[in-house]
Structure formats: structure tokens, C-alpha cells
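Quiz preparation item.
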């Protein structure tokens, strides 16, 4: 069944109630319809931030009912990004959603030192991919934010991905640190970093998941390939989180799955004070709804964590 993994995420998120979400500059059909449709599904309660007249004109043009949603006037896209971030800082929104503006514009406000949404954790991106004929959703990180992450960066990238997997209620988080091979080769730095990350997990510097690496893609997700290579681990052949060496590898992997295997890719940015929903104009309705559902589940996980900390 197509999108069955996304349907499970959406159903789980709907049960939680809508999350107040600042939507930055929803000024074209796909951005505004995505927010409105997610609201209809009970996933988010959007606060539409951008040029009021333009948003209203877009809603009229495409027959979208925005009468029940708050509209915050901001004259242009960069101002909309700043105002959306300020709504989060003020506690009015628990998630942030990209509208019809460049990702760089939104992220520039998110990472701003004095008025942004930074935490001690490095910001990173995760795709939650629904791959036909693969039994589980696959989390791939980082294919969109960190271009050439250092080992220190990868610690946060891995921890963000594990935290996401736990928020999505995966019963076991199995993390494959990918490279071109499954043996440590000093001439291939990503294999050395993979081994270091696994040892850091052994020492409790990364928590919440089972790590193995380096692993090549085939023996990370194919039990048969892992068996042929005689790799015995709880991760090999069964990984549900894939950590790529750099942005180029991640981007190619995600797009290969999308365009050659017919996969869908919901996108979210983690490591900021709130989850950030990143969607593309080319995304289907299912992908947009799944991205909102992922954010809602992350918000719920953070609420539960905060409640435990107070208790």
C-alpha cells in the first residue's frame, strides 16, 4: 500500500491534537494549501506570517479557506521569517514551517545568535523516507544542511536522528554510519569517523540507539548482503537510520530513492528550539502532511521530556 508508513505517522500525530505552527511566507498555492490541509487534518494550527494582502489574494485565487487562522502581517519574505521566529521565541508557536521563501532566508533567522532559535546542539536535517517495498521508514541525515560535517558535528547529527527516531516511536533505533565500505581504512576518513562514532556510543557519548559502522549501503539495509560479507551485528541489514558522510552523498542517496525507487521524502530540521518543517514546492500532499506529522511527534516527545525533567 502506497504511503502506508506515512499514514501511520499521520494517524499517530492526529491523536495528539494540532501543534501551533508559525508558517513563514505562505504566498503560493503549494505553501498555503499545505498549511491549510495540515490544519484540516488536525496536525497543526497554523499562524500565517507574511504580506497579508498577498496571502489573502492567494487564498481567494485557489479557493483556500483561511478565515479560521491567525494572520500576522509582514511586508516581505525576510521580515516574515524574522516574525515567524519571534512567534516561536515568544512561546506562541511550537513548530516553524517554511512557506514560499528560500530555505536560506528562513535558516538565516533561525541561526541568528541573538534573536534565533539555536541550542547547544548543532542544527541538522533529516529526511523521513517512505520507500516502496521496504518494510520500515528510513531516516537519512544529513542531506540538506551540513555540507562537510566534522566528527564533532556528526555526534550531534547522529543524536538528532536518534531523537527523531524515538519521537517517531520506532521500537528499536538501529543506526548505520555509511561509507563506501564496511572496513576501517585510514585512507577513507569517513570509515575512521564511523568507527569513532560507534565507540563514542559505547562510552555513552551518543545515546538512545544501537550504532554500527562503517557500513556500505547494501550491507546496512540488506540482510543478504550483510550475510555474504559475514557482518554480524544488530544493525547490519536492518538499519532504520542512515548517517551519510556528507551532504553530497546524502543528497544523491535521497534523490536516488525518490527518482529511481519512487520514494517520498518528508523533511525536518532538528537541533533548534523547535522542529522546522522544510517542504519543497514539488512535494505531494502526502509528503507535506507527513512532514507536519513528524514535527508534531517531535513536539510531543519534547513535551514529555520536559515533563520528566520537572518531575
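Solution:
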Amino acid at each position: 500500500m502506497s504511503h502506508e508508513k506515512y499514514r501511520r505517522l499521520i494517524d499517530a500525530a492526529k491523536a495528539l491534537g494540532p501543534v501551533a505552527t508559525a508558517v513563514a511566507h505562505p504566498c503560493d498555492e503549494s505553501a498555503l494549501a499545505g498549511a491549510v490541509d495540515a490544519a484540516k487534518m488536525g496536525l497543526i494550527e497554523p499562524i500565517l506570517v507574511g504580506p497579508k494582502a498577498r496571502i489573502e489574494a492567494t487564498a481567494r485565487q485557489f479557493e483556500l479557506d483561511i478565515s479560521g487562522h491567525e494572520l500576522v502581517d509582514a511586508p516581505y519574505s525576510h521580515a516574515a521569517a524574522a516574525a515567524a521566529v519571534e512567534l516561536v521565541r515568544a512561546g506562541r508557536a511550537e513548530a516553524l514551517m517554511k512557506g514560499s521563501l528560500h530555505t536560506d532566508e528562513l535558516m538565516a533567522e533561525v541561526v541568528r545568535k541573538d534573536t534565533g532559535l539555536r541550542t547547544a546542539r548543532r542544527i541538522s536535517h533529516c529526511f523521513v523516507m517512505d520507500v516502496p517495498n521496504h518494510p520500515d521508514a528510513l531516516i537519512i541525515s544529513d542531506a540538506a544542511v551540513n555540507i562537510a560535517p566534522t566528527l564533532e558535528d556528526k555526534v550531534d547529527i547522529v543524536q538528532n536522528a536518534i531523537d527523531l527516531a524515538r519521537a517517531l516511536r520506532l521500537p528499536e533505533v538501529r543506526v548505520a554510519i555509511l561509507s563506501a565500505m564496511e572496513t576501517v581504512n585510514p585512507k577513507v576518513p569517513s570509515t575512521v569517523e564511523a568507527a569513532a562514532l560507534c565507540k563514542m556510543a559505547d562510552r555513552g557519548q551518543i545515546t538512545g540507539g544501537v550504532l554500527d559502522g562503517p557500513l556500505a549501503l547494501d550491507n546496512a539495509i540488506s540482510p543478504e548482503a550483510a550475510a555474504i560479507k559475514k557482518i554480524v551485528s544488530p544493525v547490519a541489514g536492518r538499519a532504520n537510520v542512515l548517517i551519510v558522510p556528507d551532504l553530497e552523498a546524502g543528497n544523491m542517496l535521497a534523490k536516488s530513492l525518490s527518482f529511481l525507487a519512487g520514494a517520498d521524502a518528508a523533511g525536518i530540521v532538528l537541533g533548534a528550539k523547535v522542529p522546522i518543517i522544510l517542504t519543497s514546492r514539488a512535494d505531494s500532499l502526502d509528503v507535506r502532511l507527513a512532514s507536519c506529522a513528524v514535527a508534531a511527534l517531535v513536539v510531543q516527545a519534547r513535551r514529555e521530556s520536559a515533563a520528566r525533567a520537572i518531575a
